[in-house]
Amino acid sequence: MSTVVRKLRETVCRLHEELVRYNLVAWTAGNVSGRVPGEDLFVIKPSGVSYDELTPESIVVCDLDGELVEGELSPSSDTAAHAYVYRAMPHVGGVVHTHSTYASAWAARGEAIPCVLTAMADEFGGEIPVGPFALIGGDDIGKGVVATLENHRSPAVLMRNHGVFSIGRDARAAVKAAVMCEDVARTVHVARQLGEPLPIAQADIDSLYDRYQNVYGQRSPR
Amino acid sequence: MSTVVRKLRETVCRLHEELVRYNLVAWTAGNVSGRVPGEDLFVIKPSGVSYDELTPESIVVCDLDGELVEGELSPSSDTAAHAYVYRAMPHVGGVVHTHSTYASAWAARGEAIPCVLTAMADEFGGEIPVGPFALIGGDDIGKGVVATLENHRSPAVLMRNHGVFSIGRDARAAVKAAVMCEDVARTVHVARQLGEPLPIAQADIDSLYDRYQNVYGQRSPR
Amino acid sequence: MSTVVRKLRETVCRLHEELVRYNLVAWTAGNVSGRVPGEDLFVIKPSGVSYDELTPESIVVCDLDGELVEGELSPSSDTAAHAYVYRAMPHVGGVVHTHSTYASAWAARGEAIPCVLTAMADEFGGEIPVGPFALIGGDDIGKGVVATLENHRSPAVLMRNHGVFSIGRDARAAVKAAVMCEDVARTVHVARQLGEPLPIAQADIDSLYDRYQNVYGQRSPR
Amino acid sequence: MSTVVRKLRETVCRLHEELVRYNLVAWTAGNVSGRVPGEDLFVIKPSGVSYDELTPESIVVCDLDGELVEGELSPSSDTAAHAYVYRAMPHVGGVVHTHSTYASAWAARGEAIPCVLTAMADEFGGEIPVGPFALIGGDDIGKGVVATLENHRSPAVLMRNHGVFSIGRDARAAVKAAVMCEDVARTVHVARQLGEPLPIAQADIDSLYDRYQNVYGQRSPR
């Protein structure tokens, strides 16, 4: 196993702790994957393993058809969806799937989250869109994720009656998108419980998005 | 005390930590039991003991009439209900009872949770049903649990004005059902606060349920 | 300082951790006191000290007029209310005050929590009542607490626009009442968000209350 | 680096843990700053650094124009707003910014939080007001914060479609205001979900505010 794969397994293993910390997952219902740079491979959580028991060694390696290449355990039952995204979107280096409560509630109604918070404009550049209903087991979920996100600024999609898929340039960025998706899903839900949130002008959304993508954070990658 | 019983006490003691971790219980209001394989016995939490103080030794052993067979402390005040389930449902190896917030709120209205999430179709195979109002102290709660669950895919029942009982092939599976029951009770509640969730077609529910029960997770039991 | 007072300070100090664990308090807004058995004294949290910094030694001793008898720090600004309860209700051995979210929300509307959960019948024997609006600084809060609770089964009262006071035979029982008050305040709130909870017949409430007060838990005091 | 600055960096670093503990922040979205006493300088969180990685050494020092004076990392992207507050309000020694859920929900609707809790009267002396919509990147946010707070008892302002800015005599007081702002935003939200909270008479609000600002806590500063 190459050093790159070993380190990526460690990173992806540790990133699952963020799903737990931010209450995005119950039991084993959520997974993170990361593309192996320069290879047609990605690493992903094994199926049905609890977050407490997850170790870097238990993270499995798959090819872009979702077939197991290395690892003792069966890959996540969502592996086909992750694989489809990596095949279709070469700039994506990380994918996350959760059933986080507030985002999944918007998904159960099939309703996009409107962009009424500056933090949403920053991270998502507009609304968080809804993808189609799709059954697990083939490429339908992956196709729905890609069809929704490829023409969208948002790195997260609410899959109807299901949950969230988020993408990023690496696994950490995809986890950040999943965390921020639930955060704004909750805040906009709470806002709407007692009335209508005020809209943000499109020009202001564009300006916030542009600035955040290009100025925020430290110059060196974190 | 046999090795089997000792190990089961450890397992059941530790599983109570999951009730705490997932915020399913306040103070001492929730309990886990597990059937001793091949014997007419089960182990269960003692009554009124806080989760911090729970040790494998404090877990008590009862027969299927709910009578104390081994242990220093009085068994849970819900012991009669657990015992009734073990007597009536031979395939059940674990029972959990909680007053978890969102599930109990559906129970207070006497309303079943509709199956509008793929995760619900996976774990519950349809709606989570409501059982009758029943007083503690005799077999009424146990009868209500069994009458509701014996003709149902769902491993969890919302007992009216009371809380949740869940079952499983072992104690861990029953705890998982209790955790997932609260998770979907919360998500569907949140979804319905701002409108009507979209339905999932019965054929899709059947397909998801079948797949999850037969394909998900690792081949070896976890 | 007597051994009894030293142990009571330890107990009351540690019980504040339960307020934190169950999310009943923000910053320093909540306090526990306990009567010194057989003496006209009680111990209580010092004012404005964070829960992390609380030590048994920092817990102060007051007489039943709320005057500081022993301790380096000023007593809680709610000391007069605690003292009034101890003077008026000789069977009370512990008092707790919090601004816990859901209970305080009922209090802000001046609305009693209806008894629609068996766990409420067990612990509170009926609804959780509302006490009057009262300003801090004299005996008004204490009078309102006592006037409301002295003719009531409930060990907790929702003080209008303010928060919760709970009582018990000792400090631990009062903390349990505060924890259960917030738990049922939340569950009944959530239930009512989507419709009307079903009522429980008065005879069933009476039966549940009687059983819980006399049968639940272990025979020896815990 | 002076001892004063070193200690302030430690204090401000540690205060970020309170933002995490009280769930006021997701990922890196929230920051604390503190004025260096007697100098035209303040210390603030670096941009895009996670709370786990924050160390006293990573906290940066800026002048009152928001320019970096000392430190390896880029200052928070909210630095201009903090700097504007320090320039305009000489009595302010600490500033906090968060997107805490319930406060941001009120901000998304552009609605002030009415003073219907005695704890709000204590800490805020009345309603928590709304400030204007303002884009990040210049002095607009700072101007909006100052224009709203300079004629107000409240140490916190809900910036429209954005989040909370709070101020205090030092960084700890500003963090307390941010914590209490979210706490009352949540409680009043929950109260209003099921009806209208009862008002508190202005004279009572005045009396509570006066007492809390002058009597609460220990005589020595904490």
From TrEMBL, chains A, B, C, D:
Keywords: Metal-binding, Zinc. InterPro entries: Aldolase_class_II_sugar_metab (IPR050197), Aldolase_II/adducin_N (IPR001303), Aldolase_II/adducin_N_sf (IPR036409). Residues 10-189 form the Class II aldolase/adducin N-terminal domain. SUPFAM superfamilies: AraD/HMP-PK domain-like. Its cofactor is Zn(2+). It is an enzyme of class 5 (isomerase). Its EC number is 5.1.3.4. The keyword Metal-binding applies. It catalyses: L-ribulose 5-phosphate = D-xylulose 5-phosphate. NCBIfam families: PRK06557.1 (NF005123). Belongs to the aldolase class II family. AraD/FucA subfamily. This is L-ribulose-5-phosphate 4-epimerase. It comes from Streptosporangium fragile.
